[in-house]
Write a structure and sequence with these properties.
The complex is a heterodimer of chains A (114) and B (113).
Chain A: E1 3-5, E2 10-14, E3 19-21, E4 24-26, E5 32-39, E6 46-52, E7 60-61, E8 64-69, E9 74-79, E10 88-96, E11 102-104, E12 108-113
Parallel strand pairs in A: 2-12
Antiparallel strand pairs in A: 1-4, 3-9, 5-6, 5-10, 7-8, 8-9, 10-11, 10-12
Chain B: E1 5-7, E2 10-13, E3 19-24, E4 31-38, E5 42-50, E6 53-57, E7 64-68, E8 74-78, E9 87-94, E10 103-104, E11 108-112
Parallel strand pairs in B: 2-11
Antiparallel strand pairs in B: 1-3, 3-8, 4-5, 4-9, 5-6, 7-8, 9-10, 9-11
The chains are: A mainly beta (114), B mainly beta (113).
Chain lengths: 114, 113
């Protein structure tokens, strides 16, 4: 079965600085999708960024970018110019190409310090 | 506001009881997903429906069932409730693709006493 690991339960970053959240996963599939979701204190789940495994180019969405290393099964999220509103729980998630498996990591709680 | 609505917001019930959670997807979305978020098990995918048909199944217990109706709203039925079923239950809606963006509702907080 697929698993997703986030080895950093908590992280903090100074406002305007850059932070990287780690995610590794285990799968035997060759085609799949990876996601980062943000859950602020409101508990709403918000999609931050997604990556298709067959695409070599790393996904980017404004201040958010990923470092996707398929061979290493690593999918880290970089947040540049951190803002107070970025403080939240961040979940890494995996979905198989046929959609049967949708697995979330345990989450990383990010604090942004003014 | 994601456009996904969930009712009720909070639900308190007793062990052994049965409850129904309701979700209305965003206008135009044909897929509905259900998730459970608890302190000890994190966020778990339960089940997905697409245009009324079950499309994908995750870690959904046999005591739980779901359906999607012709008007595309969905209901999650939880029966023979146990203390461990206390959790936040999310519904999300999206398109047909496996990687389509999912829009999450605000969740239903279920407390089993």
């Amino acid at each position: 079965a697929q698993t997703v690991t986030q080895s950093q339960p908590e992280m903090s970053v100074q406002e305007a600085e850059t932070v990287t959240l780690s995610c590794t996963y285990d799968t035997s599939e060759s085609d799949y999708y990876l996601f980062w979701y943000k859950q602020p204190p409101s508990r709403q789940m918000i999609l931050v960024i997604r990556q298709e495994a067959y695409k070599q180019q790393n996904a980017t969405e404004n201040r958010f970018s990923v470092n996707f290393q398929k061979a290493a099964k690593s999918f880290s999220l970089k947040i540049s110019d951190s803002q107070l509103g970025d403080a939240a729980m961040y979940f890494c998630a995996y979905r198989g190409n046929y959609g049967q498996n949708f697995v979330f990591g345990p989450g990383t709680r990010l604090s942004v310090l003014p | 506001d994601s456009g996904v609505t969930q009712t009720p917001k909070h639900l308190i019930t007793a062990t052994g009881q049965r409850v129904t959670l309701r979700c209305s997807p965003r206008s135009g979305d044909l897929s509905v997903y259900w998730y459970q978020q608890s302190l000890d098990q994190g966020l778990q995918f339960l089940i997905q429906y697409y245009n009324g048909e079950e499309r994908a199944k995750g870690n959904i217990l046999e005591r739980f069932s779901a359906q999607q109706f012709p008007d595309l709203h969905s209901e999650l039925n939880l029966s023979s409730l146990e203390l461990g079923d206390s959790a936040l239950y999310f519904c999300a809606s999206g398109g047909a693709g496996w990687a389509d963006t999912q829009y999450f509702g605000p969740g239903t907080r279920l407390t089993v006493l």
